[in-house]
Amino acid sequence: MLSIENSVSKPTLVIDRDPECLADILEASSILQASHVRGLSTELPPRTIGHAWHLAYSTLHHGFSLKSLYRRLRGTDSPMLIVIRDALDQVFGSFLSHPLRPSETFYGTGETFLFMLHPRFKCFRWTGENTFFIKGNLDSFAIGGGSGHFGLWLDETLYLGRSSPCYTFHNCCLSEVDDFRVIEMEVWTFK
Questions:
Q1: What are the tens digits of pLDDT across the range 47-89?
Q2: Residues of 141-155 as b/e, b for ≥16 C-beta within 10 angstroms?
Q3: CA torsion, points 72, 73, 74, 76, in degrees to nearest 10?
Q4: Three-state SS string across 22-53, please?
Q5: Count of Cβ atoms closer than 10 Å to residue 116 Cβ
Q6: Which residues, including other chains, have CB under 8 Å from residue 61's CB and lie 6 or more apart?
């Protein structure tokens, strides 16, 4: 939402970065809190503003299967948000410029980024060092890379993951430990 506030000196343009239907997002999500949604909303690219968030996949409702995730995302052309809660109650994930899909090479754009939400909020943007944004296989998917390390990697069960520093985003490990177990994962699209 855009509004103009008049001040004594001059009018100021104010952009409301709260997503459409914040209450609906919080009701649909079993991971995200209002502070998470507001923090992420300030980091999302402008092309997502004004679009409703849609919960396209949740391990709680759809199970732990990469193949099921790919099937649910088939035909989607929206960017997406992957949010993970691990066994240590850490919350983190990635914004993908393009939908997750099986691919022979890395794809995506510099809009892609990694983030941590809990216990602290931090985003890791593209460094420009490489273009290893998104890579999907039938047995895993990866976000970011370089020197044999992925910023975020999940196996085909969506239960085991790994996070390592990578050249694409110069991120730290997103979880408290490099190898983590997924308790829950949500994938959001923008409609």
A1: 998 889 999 999 999 999 999 999 999 999 999 999 999 999 9
A2: bbbbbbeebbbbbbb
A3: 140
A4: HHHHHHHCCCCCHHHHHHHHHHCCHHHCCCCE
A5: 20
A6: none
pTM of the model: 0.88
- 159 Cβ partners below 8 Å, 6+ apart? 64, 181, 182
pLDDT in tens, 170-180: 999 999 999 99
Number of Cβ within a 10 Å radius of residue 13? 8
Assigned token pair, 129: 């060092």
Token pair for 150: 């992925």
Q: Where do we find the tokens 């979880």?
A: 175
**What is the per-residue DSSP string for the chain?**
-EEEEE-SS-EEEEE--SPTTHHHHHHH-SS--HHHHHHHHHHS-GGGTTPPEEEEEEHHHH-S-HHHHHHHHTT--S-EEEEEEETT--EEEEEESS-----SS-B--TT-EEEEEESS-EEE---SS----EEE-SSEEEEEEETTEEEEEEETTSSEEE----TTTT---SSSSSEEEEEEEEEEEE-
Neighbours of 134 (CB within 10 A): 25
Distance CA 186, CA 5 (A): 37
Strand partners, 141: 136, 154
